[in-house]
């Protein structure tokens, strides 16, 4: 069973949170509410999120300040943030949103179809990254198990079969990532395209590590890429 991605919805108005849930329910992911910046930061301490929808105008800690805290934390700094605001103060206000680390800035009332499409892109990228981390972790675990206490033909056969299986799994992820990149190129969403390019670089690193482990690749195998 594929685990659902979590989407953090941050707004001090319950009716706005309800509207967001109605719009995003069709994505069939886990929607998590937060009614303040402080509550959002607390949720981010324990859970991983694919994307954050963050209201700008909130009492106490506003959206800009909340985003600044999110970007300062190593655990959360790479989570995409989409700012939502009911007030349009012009280019300067929008620039402040991007400077705070937002990948997008949407004024209310927004088109539900557009918002859902933007969120779905980041959910899909998040799922691809999760698949990549799982493949890297499986490779490390299986290689460690395969190399401990085995000698002779059995020791040579098991890693070879494992590498073939992992290569096939990685190929499936690479194919999906390539299709997603083509789709994003057509939409011209710069933030999403950049995120997809980062994913492709990770996939390339993992493919090189697998290729280096193939028999006959030599003893100078590249280290496995980081799992983050």
TrEMBL record:
<feature type="coiled-coil region">
    <location>
        <begin position="163"/>
        <end position="190"/>
    </location>
</feature>
<keyword id="KW-0175">Coiled coil</keyword>
<feature type="domain" description="Response regulatory">
    <location>
        <begin position="6"/>
        <end position="123"/>
    </location>
</feature>
<protein>
    <submittedName>
        <fullName>Response regulator</fullName>
    </submittedName>
</protein>
<dbReference type="GO" id="GO:0000160">
    <property type="term" value="P:phosphorelay signal transduction system"/>
</dbReference>
<dbReference type="InterPro" id="IPR001789">
    <property type="entry name" value="Sig_transdc_resp-reg_receiver"/>
</dbReference>
<dbReference type="InterPro" id="IPR050595">
    <property type="entry name" value="Bact_response_regulator"/>
</dbReference>
<dbReference type="Pfam" id="PF00072">
    <property type="entry name" value="Response_reg"/>
</dbReference>
<keyword id="KW-0597">Phosphoprotein</keyword>
<dbReference type="InterPro" id="IPR011006">
    <property type="entry name" value="CheY-like_superfamily"/>
</dbReference>
<feature type="modified residue" description="4-aspartylphosphate">
    <location>
        <position position="55"/>
    </location>
</feature>
């Amino acid at each position: 069973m594929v685990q659902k991605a979590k989407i953090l919805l941050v707004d001090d108005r319950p009716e706005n949170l309800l509207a967001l849930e109605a719009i995003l329910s069709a994505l069939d992911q886990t929607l998590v509410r937060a009614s303040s910046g402080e509550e959002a930061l607390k949720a981010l301490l324990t859970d991983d999120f694919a994307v954050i929808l963050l209201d700008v105008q909130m009492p106490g800690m506003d959206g800009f300040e909340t985003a600044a805290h999110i970007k300062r934390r190593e655990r959360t700094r790479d989570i995409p943030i989409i700012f939502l605001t009911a007030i349009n103060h012009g280019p300067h206000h929008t620039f402040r949103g991007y400077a705070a680390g937002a990948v997008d800035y949407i004024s209310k009332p927004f088109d539900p179809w557009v918002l859902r499409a933007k969120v779905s892109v980041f959910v899909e990228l998040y799922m691809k990254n999760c698949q990549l981390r799982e493949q890297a972790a499986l490779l490390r675990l299986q290689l460690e198990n395969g190399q401990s206490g085995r000698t002779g033909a059995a020791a040579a056969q098991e890693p070879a079969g494992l590498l073939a299986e992992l290569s096939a799994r990685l190929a499936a992820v690479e194919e999906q990532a390539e299709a997603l990149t083509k789709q994003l190129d057509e939409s011209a969403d710069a933030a999403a395209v950049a995120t997809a390019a980062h994913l492709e670089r990770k996939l390339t690193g993992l493919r090189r590590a697998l290729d280096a482990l193939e028999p006959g690749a030599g003893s100078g195998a590249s280290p496995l890429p980081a799992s983050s």
